[in-house]
Write a structure and sequence with these properties.
297 residues, alpha/beta, 8 strands, 47% helix, globular
């Protein structure tokens, strides 16, 4: 009996000693591993090319935005013109959607009176985009101002056809953005995917495509995933934002972005998905990181 008690006590001592070793070495090892993890650069899965729209983070200068974008694993920044391209290049980033040739959002290709200025602007900008090694250059339909669909399409085709040979020569894609006309851009003509797709068909060039803004199209037409699947060959670029409000794409809004990203990925899309939400949270970069993680499937 005494022998059994001695063995039991010895076993307890061994267990206690082992536990003590675990406390002294195991926990410190865990802490070290956690430190290592925190120091690791943030790694993305590599399935989606992520970018961010410059204007949404205008409180940061371009240099700072580039530094923070690199930390988050981004490879591009949207809506950056030639003046800031050297800064992007310095940080190994690209202008994933170039701008600077448009007049504004309301005076576009659907009105002949703007054609001379637009053709001049784009004729000058297309070679600059190509020389910088970039591909996408944004454009806009402009507001209806009483024009029916047919007039809008015809005018857009007339103006854009004059630019297509130059775009094709330089392998630059003119990308017309789809904007909602119910909330943010009232009277804008290219406000549904079918309108944009019809324009793509009439132009018949691989160097003219659409920027499918998920926020805008949820407002004007909904049916986001089905539309992406049926119209993906006409889409060169995507923008995100929460609906309603155009803020964070977290659970405060109505769209489920993981499913949308999965649908985009399943189409074989190789372009960029750019975050274009207006952060409400005080830590804007934390909001950006969360948005990227939601979309990184």
């Amino acid at each position: 009996m005494k022998s059994k008690l001695n063995r039991r006590n010895a076993l307890k001592n061994i267990i206690a000693g082992t536990a003590a070793i675990g406390v002294s070495s195991g926990f410190s090892s865990l802490a070290m591993n956690n430190t290592d993890i925190q120091e690791q650069p943030w790694k993305l899965k590599g399935n989606i090319n992520h970018s961010v729209c410059r204007w949404c983070f205008s409180t940061l200068d371009v240099e700072t935005l580039c530094i923070e974008a690199k930390k988050l694993g981004l490879t591009g920044i949207d809506l950056v013109g030639p003046k800031d391209w050297p800064t992007l290049k310095k940080h190994g980033l690209i202008s994933s959607m170039c701008n600077g040739a448009e007049i504004n959002l309301v005076d576009g290709f659907n009105d002949k009176k703007f054609h001379d200025q637009l053709i001049k602007n784009y004729t000058e900008m297309i070679p600059l985009v190509a020389a910088a090694g970039y591909k996408n250059l944004i454009c806009f339909s402009g507001n209806r101002r009483g024009k029916d669909d047919e007039t809008g399409w015809n005018n857009c085709v007339e103006g854009l056809k004059k630019l297509m040979p130059l775009a094709e020569k330089h392998n630059v894609t003119l990308v017309m953005e789809l904007l909602n006309s119910k909330v943010n851009h009232q009277d804008y003509q290219c406000d549904t995917t079918p309108w944009g797709v019809e324009l793509c068909k009439r132009l018949g060039s691989e160097n003219f495509k659409l920027l499918y803004d998920i926020y805008h199209m949820q407002i004007d037409e909904g049916n986001v995933i089905s539309t992406i699947k049926s119209s993906h060959k006409y889409i060169a670029h995507y923008h995100t934002a929460g609906v309603p409000g155009r803020n964070e794409i977290d659970d405060t809004q109505e769209l489920y972005y993981p499913a949308i990203m999965k649908a985009i990925l399943e189409t074989g899309f190789k372009g960029f998905v750019a975050q274009e939400f207006i952060p409400k949270n005080a830590d804007k970069l934390a909001s950006l990181k969360k948005a990227i993680s939601i979309c990184d499937i």
